[in-house]
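Hi V.,

You were right to ask for the full record rather than a summary. Here it is.
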Amino acid sequence: MYKKVQSITMSVNNTNMNTNTNTNMHPVINDLFLPLSDYGLEQGELFPVLQFTEVSGKMINLTERNSRGLIIVYLSVNCKICESVYQGLKLFSERHPYYDLTIFMESPTPEEVIQKAKILQIKHPIYHLTEADLTITRTRKFPFAYYISPEGIVMSKGVINDGLRDLDILLKIGAQVREAS
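Predicted structure:
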């Protein structure tokens, strides 16, 4: 499956390199590439946390969602770059209502996550990441995101410094992977 994805990405890269006449364009948009897309869980791997309890106490099962997939965004309460991602999350959800979005937030305590959610008026489900979760998901970069299929499979991933733009790229890469498999 990885070779199929690699060849799709490479053919998109070659097409875009030939048609890009604006030297100021951001290469991420043209190449459908996210930084650190080789980091964390492998593409095609089952996401290891399929059930979790969000900070509100509600139990979530990722494979029992009625959507086209799930976007899991890794953030940290102390990450300054993460601050710029929050508005993009809201816009992404408005633009893509058929995809669920969940925030996995790292902090020393769940109370800090709850406080941050109140300050930023976050409406998405939020899960407090523990040290064990960071180890199991092999993800310690922030802000980082995974696109997970309805079956719980990692379709795409990468750093999302620009919330809306990078999440759109994440979704496009994931759609190409789903089509290729």
